[in-house]
Design goal:
The chain is an all-alpha fold. The chain contains five helices and no strands. It is globular.
Length: 108
């Protein structure tokens, strides 16, 4: 089974402009994003929010875990912004991946 990436993501990867986004950094970006931008009276805020949402949506194609984080935030904020009772909880922030060996971790 092949996965089709959105054209912007595929173009970035082909051009070598794709930077890896860790799950922790992606969670931070999702947490900082203004999910209520669509309700702004300022067209500039709306345009910037729409552009940023598309960037985040594109980054959600990096891995299944990125997609799960994006969908968790989207569902939470959709429910919250539309005043639905009991919005789903936000996903927990992923733990950082340590890049060292077990021996290095246990040394004093």
């Amino acid at each position: 089974m092949t996965t089709t990436l959105p054209s912007r993501t595929a173009d970035r990867i082909a051009a070598g402009n794709s930077r890896p986004v860790t799950l922790e950094a992606f969670w931070d970006a999702l947490s900082a994003f203004d999910w209520g931008f669509e309700f702004s009276d300022d067209h500039g805020v709306w345009t910037a929010g729409r552009t940023r949402l598309e960037e985040l949506r594109s980054q959600a194609t990096i891995s299944d875990q990125h997609f799960i984080l994006f969908e968790g935030f989207r569902r939470h904020h959709d429910a919250r912004n539309y005043s639905r009772p009991n919005p789903p909880a936000l996903p927990e922030r992923p733990l950082p991946v340590l890049n060292h060996t077990r021996e290095q971790a246990v040394q004093p």
